[in-house]
Amino acid sequence: MKSDSHGLSGGENILIVDNTLENLQSLSATLSENGYTVLSAISGSMALITARLTRPNLILLDIKMPDVDGYEVCKKLKGSKQTSDIPIIFLSCLDNVYEKIKAFKAGGADYITKPFQIEEVLARVKHQVTIQKLTRQIKEQNKQLKNEAEERRKAELDAVAASQAKTLFFANMSHELRTPLNAIIGFSKLISDNYLLNAEHQENINIINRSAENLLALINDVLKLSKIELGAIDLDNRRFDLYHLLDNIKEMFLLELKQTNLKLNFIVAPNVPGYIYADEKKIRSCLCNLIGNAIKFTPQGSVILRVSFSENEAKDVDFSSSARLMFQVEDTGCGISFGELDDLFDAFAQADAGRKSLQGTGLGLTITRKFVRMMGGEIEVESTVGKGSIFSFYIVLDIPKNLDSKLTNSRLTYTRASDFNNEVSHASLLEDLMTMPHAWVLRLNQAANEVDEDLLQIILEELPESKAPLSDSLTGLVKDFRLDIVADSTKQILDKQIEGWV
Fold it and tell me: Against a cut of 0.90, is the pTM above it?
């Protein structure tokens, strides 16, 4: 007798349990003719042994038997893990409701009364076999789906772990590479100031310097992107003066544009609040990147920053949580082809103009989009080759409604916390800087010129307690975004130190 119920050549195997030989022979013949493999047992005890050995697809079970009745057989089969899933159809001459209820309570799937019609038996057998087959298929599919889901979950965890390991590696390597690169840049600048160098050597030194600066910019961007992906950069929302920030950004780029015919205009809508609650540094980074790109790829014409504000009109809440601050940077530059727009914000992706210019890292727009999304917004671009591009982004703001309207709706005359136009204060800063090592001043100068706030913070943390006045002065300038003063002051010190060596 075969024990594998799913591999029998005659189809599903059915166990008939009946102590009446005529019933066994009649049912066996009919079921065999209809493609079923039939097993038989003439007692309850034999039925239990046969069911456990063969695990049939279906059992037709009589109730009245001499040793163990059908109810007890059914209970024992259903109580065994090995046979509990086998459907049982009771065959009995007992036709009262009580017996039928008792049969179903014992675990029966169906109940056929004797004398029976063979067509009815075949229909009910087919029905139960179909249910059992579908149930088995569902269980197998669920098991397969569970295995696939577990494999997918494991693959996702492995992918996340690999991504985090890669990101952590890039972050650590980027940090370690910055120190030697700063030394290369610093010494190449020192060598380039040597008037004894001929033109060829001077050009070679300039190539070294430019290459090192480009590599340092790439490393800084990789480090920043790695920190974002590792979740090491969070929002630092604070109340700050938006117009003050815009003034500083414009002043910084106007210095860069002094020797060009390119026009830079800021257009701010009248309803844009003066004070907002947001991450000032990330807004500054986004604007500097977009404006810097626009200037880089606009040989002539203009670059325009437009700032607008859309406020939630609800009056019954303390905060306008859906208020949006919108920025739009428009240029008249070379533009970007339609086919390049989809991948423009991907890491290391650059438009054709960017690749030809050999400038940039291909990470600036990636970082900008991540910052914008961290602030609850989104960024998009429109561009026409030969006419220019428009980069637009918005951030979501929470603006206290009880804030003084004079502060939120009027453009103020700003009083900078660190006003170093005062000659005494400026002289004091220069005097303190003169006492610092050349290498330290050089690193500070480079960080200020590159607007690298993270590196500036690291450099300032190196100052000992005895240099607290210098630390306070420089920290005030950095917080006030007066990096132009830091760059100018450190350059003056570097020039004096080099003159002293010559």
Answer: no
